[in-house]
Amino acid sequence: MLTTIHQAKPLVHCMTNYVVANFTANGLLAIGASPVMADEVEEVADMVSIAGALLLNIGTVNTRTAKAMLVAGKKANECGVPVVLDPVGVGATPYRKSVVMEILDQVKINVLRCNEGELASIYGVSWDSRGVDSGEGDMDTIEAAKEVARKYQCIVVVTGEVDFITDGQEVTHVHGGNILATRVTGTGCLLSAICAAVLAASKQPMLELATTLKQYKQASEQSGEELGAFQINFINALQKMAEGHQ
Amino acid sequence: MLTTIHQAKPLVHCMTNYVVANFTANGLLAIGASPVMADEVEEVADMVSIAGALLLNIGTVNTRTAKAMLVAGKKANECGVPVVLDPVGVGATPYRKSVVMEILDQVKINVLRCNEGELASIYGVSWDSRGVDSGEGDMDTIEAAKEVARKYQCIVVVTGEVDFITDGQEVTHVHGGNILATRVTGTGCLLSAICAAVLAASKQPMLELATTLKQYKQASEQSGEELGAFQINFINALQKMAEGHQ
Amino acid sequence: MLTTIHQAKPLVHCMTNYVVANFTANGLLAIGASPVMADEVEEVADMVSIAGALLLNIGTVNTRTAKAMLVAGKKANECGVPVVLDPVGVGATPYRKSVVMEILDQVKINVLRCNEGELASIYGVSWDSRGVDSGEGDMDTIEAAKEVARKYQCIVVVTGEVDFITDGQEVTHVHGGNILATRVTGTGCLLSAICAAVLAASKQPMLELATTLKQYKQASEQSGEELGAFQINFINALQKMAEGHQ
């Protein structure tokens, strides 16, 4: 799938948090996509209308950028630009929950990319989510994801030790990965951005997102055992895959 | 000390600048802590109340985030969550000085982590601080730090060629380090975040912060002589220490 | 030229986007300059008045920071502090165009550092600029740059496969470089910051900026063929040049 992105070179409008903005931009560039970050309410409608996809990531959202996300999301819907929502740490505070629910209420999203704890919050079950990490709780995760997918008519991608993807009917599991990916900030956020790039270039989202999840896990497997160099190795692995070298 | 953090895995609420947010998150993850960045005034009280410690770093503060820092700091005090203040470049502009003095006035901080120039500004002596670098001036630094520690009833950590820590009575010096640490942005900021993680996991802050300062200097000593790779080596060194491999 | 910066150690006030702030700070530190990031309207006038140069980069500008850029730019003019403008993606949205034109209208800039697509937007010709990438169009680029340089009485630096610099009369071309530099975010933004450092330390801007462009291309040539490690190699190459090791 990454080779398709590399050929299509989609422009991905990222409204994301300042912690991972650099890594996200470099990850998108590595697979041949073209990232643009813009969060000013006066320009986001114009920016998204020339983009191939929109990413909404609430990692460091504030009242100003939340408003801009709604404007961008609605404009994306008008223009037929696909939207990926990454509800970072949605269970951590009532404010994050309200921002995410407002987006889900006013914007038709194409993909929800989250971890188990974030899914639990959106699904509405109690969960010990501990900041922006996934945490622990009691939920039939597959059923929850399917129900959320049906409710919001979107594809739900839940990442963790085993990833899975569902459109509310079918479920595909993706195994593999590297524990180091949980020790580097932004690997989930970058995946959400890459899902946006996939949607911009894809004709069969369910199939191609599943392939992308598999490639993403393979890239992390190829990124070694050393925390410090993980990002570098990971960028290299993504680039090689996108350029069809492996 | 870093091994204790690795076991406790504290959630550290970082209100920090966008220059170093990524490095700070990755540094905290390397030692096994769990970083969360959030600066929206509507959510910071909720976020800090589930955190193990709060970091206030004014590196790119603005009127919106300054207000949020006060809200978070006061809530941290209510909840017994320890607070670390990093007064980045406080001497550079009257605005920074006013933000820092307002925090010190309204929030009980546990640790002030600064360089000599920043200490001089808070202590109230003239200093040539040159942006966010330490600069030069004429001050009995130890006496100044002790007086500031007593005045604000906090621990003061002053970093430089030789670090020292004081609670207003005792003073511990920490030698070592690597000059390259001054040529990479965010090493001071990350140390402040790690001090917050220490407070979240510590029973004897003075002792354990001193140990942490020593480990931090050792990590920089193990990070080689090449500027480009310093961050990578440093992350690796921190991880190894936290995991007890050295 | 980079050795001159290394000796002068100018303080560069960077008002830049959050995607590249970290890389910009580390790149400036690598050449021995001292970066400070500050974008709060209440402090930028004070900050710029102690700086050697000011960088205005609109990559993730918003209404708050646009206002602060005008305040900082005007104060820089008052104090004789040179100003570099990087009009990131100016052609992508009417909002970006209005911000840039307002800066050009109210602030005397010393250097405009842009790509061909951004130049086209400022020059006023139609261009397919595709987000923040340069894109394609039909324009006599040299003539456009000369006219813009004359109109705003500034030096124009246009980077691409071949860079060139003009003061409206003379034109110098700079060859070389590494295609990987276009696959890593922030290489253009960092160059703008380094141009600011050059102005702070320079007596002959046209000549010394041209030398700097050449050195920047040489540094990228020395940064290998591997995307992941490009930034590290590039920082090392800049440092070595600034320290006169090559």
UniProtKB/TrEMBL annotation, chains A, B, C:
<keyword id="KW-0460">Magnesium</keyword>
<dbReference type="GO" id="GO:0004417">
    <property type="term" value="F:hydroxyethylthiazole kinase activity"/>
</dbReference>
<feature type="binding site">
    <location>
        <position position="159"/>
    </location>
    <ligand>
        <name>ATP</name>
    </ligand>
</feature>
<keyword id="KW-0479">Metal-binding</keyword>
<keyword id="KW-0808">Transferase</keyword>
<dbReference type="GO" id="GO:0000287">
    <property type="term" value="F:magnesium ion binding"/>
</dbReference>
<dbReference type="GO" id="GO:0009229">
    <property type="term" value="P:thiamine diphosphate biosynthetic process"/>
</dbReference>
<keyword id="KW-0418">Kinase</keyword>
<feature type="binding site">
    <location>
        <position position="113"/>
    </location>
    <ligand>
        <name>ATP</name>
    </ligand>
</feature>
<keyword id="KW-0067">ATP-binding</keyword>
<protein>
    <recommendedName>
        <fullName>Hydroxyethylthiazole kinase</fullName>
        <ecNumber>2.7.1.50</ecNumber>
    </recommendedName>
</protein>
<feature type="binding site">
    <location>
        <position position="37"/>
    </location>
    <ligand>
        <name>substrate</name>
    </ligand>
</feature>
<dbReference type="GO" id="GO:0005524">
    <property type="term" value="F:ATP binding"/>
</dbReference>
<dbReference type="InterPro" id="IPR029056">
    <property type="entry name" value="Ribokinase-like"/>
</dbReference>
<comment type="function">
    <text>Catalyzes the phosphorylation of the hydroxyl group of 4-methyl-5-beta-hydroxyethylthiazole (THZ).</text>
</comment>
<keyword id="KW-0547">Nucleotide-binding</keyword>
<feature type="binding site">
    <location>
        <position position="186"/>
    </location>
    <ligand>
        <name>substrate</name>
    </ligand>
</feature>
<dbReference type="GO" id="GO:0009228">
    <property type="term" value="P:thiamine biosynthetic process"/>
</dbReference>
<comment type="similarity">
    <text>Belongs to the Thz kinase family.</text>
</comment>
<dbReference type="InterPro" id="IPR000417">
    <property type="entry name" value="Hyethyz_kinase"/>
</dbReference>
<comment type="pathway">
    <text>Cofactor biosynthesis; thiamine diphosphate biosynthesis; 4-methyl-5-(2-phosphoethyl)-thiazole from 5-(2-hydroxyethyl)-4-methylthiazole: step 1/1.</text>
</comment>
<keyword id="KW-0784">Thiamine biosynthesis</keyword>
<dbReference type="Pfam" id="PF02110">
    <property type="entry name" value="HK"/>
</dbReference>
